[in-house]
């Protein structure tokens, strides 16, 4: 039973209340409560059963309540009376509301902190993200938003490291795709150290073309569209760096995320990517450092990742018509959708975090190395092989060229500024060039 409370008067600006009934075994007890919420209440307050509500009346309102034993209590209240217990309830309500406010404030502070962190991160990017920042904040828990933030961070970190070495700035080129999405291409050409350096971010969406869908089905993807349409969202960061100096290797990395919505509304998702090195001259220490850094990142997640993805890389970056690999490899993986989306994303993040430490120490090591005209010519021949692979075999280039609205300049950004094709070129036996070719024809384990 709820308590029935009646006001008994105003004592020098403090209010008293008498509890006529309580829920304690029907016992009647009186309690005087003194509170100083208001010195002169403007209205009378009548409290019905405690907890049921607080009701305000004008002067002269009669309050009636059925008491124990069926008795009814009538009381006429004067203008200066107030139910003190009502004040107590107000105090309790205020206290409870205060706790609610604190909880709400804590939640708001946490939300504001998360939003401010996103805004702070955006300040360090090469450009504003492809997706509007407010949308990223609203969808910050979704994988597409988290992946977009990661690729923007990766682009910024790598570009800034390259700029510090070269002394020149990237040209930042934002572009939009009328079918949906867009990208940010950062390109540095004819720098002091780098002949051509490109770091691209793209976030595109729309419907897969039949040709693009065929490529995915050839990889074992079972895709069920609706009315012939397959809505997709794809995003990634991709980079290729071509230095002037033949002793500084070319490096490539790409990390991407893909989502496809099927006819029943369910989504298929997967990650892909990798990092690989293409030197012109073999350097054992460089190879060990590069592969060791990647192996360390892989080992944090699964002991089998590095050996499996290293073999996959050697197999993928293979120029079949030449019978040689494009470079000394690294790691490569695709269609990664296990063991969970969270763990797959965590692994991709670990890999993306290596792009600076696995490459920049090698750049600094050979920064001032001298080279001959013959060595420069060999570099140009090897770049010709790089072009052959990208145009004939690279899956990303093929997908981009098959997707309506794709930006050709960004897709072909990976090609070097200069290259060379010599008829029937074969390096002299026993030369450094021949040693390099032997490694490309017979990939080896470096760590």
TrEMBL record:
User: What are the recorded Gene Ontology BP terms?
Assistant: protoporphyrinogen IX biosynthetic process
| Pfam families referenced in this protein's UniProt entry, alphabetically | Coprogen_oxidas (PF01218)
Instruction: State the reactions this protein catalyses.
Output: coproporphyrinogen III + O2 + 2 H(+) = protoporphyrinogen IX + 2 CO2 + 2 H2O
Q: Which residues form a coiled coil?
A: none
Give the EC number(s) listed in the UniProt record: 1.3.3.3
Which N-terminal stretch is annotated as signal sequence?
A: none
A single Gene Ontology CC annotation of this entry is:
cytoplasm
Identify the InterPro entries for this entry: Coprogen_oxidase_aer, Coprogen_oxidase_aer_sf, Coprogen_oxidase_CS
Associated pathway = Porphyrin-containing compound metabolism; protoporphyrin-IX biosynthesis; protoporphyrinogen-IX from coproporphyrinogen-III (O2 route): step 1/1
Q: Which UniProt keywords apply?
A: Heme biosynthesis, Membrane, Oxidoreductase, Porphyrin biosynthesis, Transmembrane, Transmembrane helix
Transmembrane ranges, per UniProt, are 81-100
Please state what class of enzyme this protein is: oxidoreductase
Task: State if DNA-binding is listed as a keyword.
Answer: no
From the UniProt record, which GO molecular function terms apply? coproporphyrinogen oxidase activity
Q: Which PANTHER family match?
A: COPROPORPHYRINOGEN III OXIDASE, MITOCHONDRIAL, OXYGEN-DEPENDENT COPROPORPHYRINOGEN-III OXIDASE, MITOCHONDRIAL
- Spell out the NCBIfam families in the cross-references: PRK05330.1
Entry's family note: Belongs to the aerobic coproporphyrinogen-III oxidase family.
Q: How does it assemble?
A: Homodimer.
Q: What is the protein's given name?
A: Oxygen-dependent coproporphyrinogen-III oxidase, mitochondrial
Instruction: Please tell me the species this chain comes from.
Output: Aldrovandia affinis
């Amino acid at each position: 039973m709820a308590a029935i409370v009646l006001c008994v008067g105003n004592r020098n600006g403090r209010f008293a209340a008498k509890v006529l009934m309580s829920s304690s075994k029907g016992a009647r007890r009186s309690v005087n409560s003194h509170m100083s919420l208001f010195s002169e209440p403007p209205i009378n307050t009548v409290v019905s059963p405690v907890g049921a509500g607080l009701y305000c009346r004008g002067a002269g309102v009669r309050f009636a309540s059925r008491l124990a034993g069926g008795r009814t209590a009538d009381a006429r209240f004067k203008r200066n009376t107030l139910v003190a217990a009502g004040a107590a309830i107000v105090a309790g309500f205020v206290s409870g509301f205060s706790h609610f406010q604190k909880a709400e404030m804590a939640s708001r502070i946490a939300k504001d902190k998360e939003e401010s962190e996103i805004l702070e991160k955006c300040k360090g990017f090469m450009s504003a993200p492809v997706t509007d920042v407010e949308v990223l904040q609203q969808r910050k828990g979704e994988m597409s938003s988290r992946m977009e933030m990661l690729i923007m961070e990766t682009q910024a970190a790598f570009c800034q490291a390259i700029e510090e070495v070269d002394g020149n700035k990237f040209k930042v080129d934002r572009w939009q795709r009328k079918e949906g999405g867009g990208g940010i291409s950062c390109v540095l050409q004819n720098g002091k150290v780098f002949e051509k350096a490109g770091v691209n971010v793209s976030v595109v969406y729309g419907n897969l073309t039949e040709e693009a869908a065929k490529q995915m089905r050839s990889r074992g993807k079972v895709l069920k569209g609706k009315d012939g349409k397959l809505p997709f969202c794809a995003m990634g960061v991709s980079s290729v760096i071509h230095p002037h100096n033949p002793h500084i290797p070319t490096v490539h990395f790409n990390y991407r995320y893909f989502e496809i919505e099927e006819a029943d509304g369910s989504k298929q998702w997967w990650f892909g990517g990798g990092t690989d090195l293409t030197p012109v001259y073999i350097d054992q220490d460089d190879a060990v450092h590069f592969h060791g850094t990647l192996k360390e990142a892989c080992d944090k997640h699964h002991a089998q990742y590095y050996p499996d993805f290293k073999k996959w890389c050697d197999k993928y970056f293979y120029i079949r018509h030449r019978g040689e690999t494009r470079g000394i490899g690294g790691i490569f993986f695709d269609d990664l959708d296990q063991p969970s989306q969270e763990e797959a994303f965590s692994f991709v993040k670990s890999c993306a975090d290596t792009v600076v430490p696995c490459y920049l120490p090698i750049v600094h090591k050979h920064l001032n190395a001298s080279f001959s005209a013959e060595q420069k010519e060999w570099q140009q021949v090897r770049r010709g092989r790089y072009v052959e692979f990208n145009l004939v075999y690279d899956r990303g280039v093929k997908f981009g060229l098959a997707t309506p609205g794709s930006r050709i300049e960004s897709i072909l950004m990976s090609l070097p500024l200069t290259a060379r094709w010599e008829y029937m070129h074969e390096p002299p036996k026993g030369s450094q060039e021949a040693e390099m070719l032997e490694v490309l024809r017979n990939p080896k384990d470096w760590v």
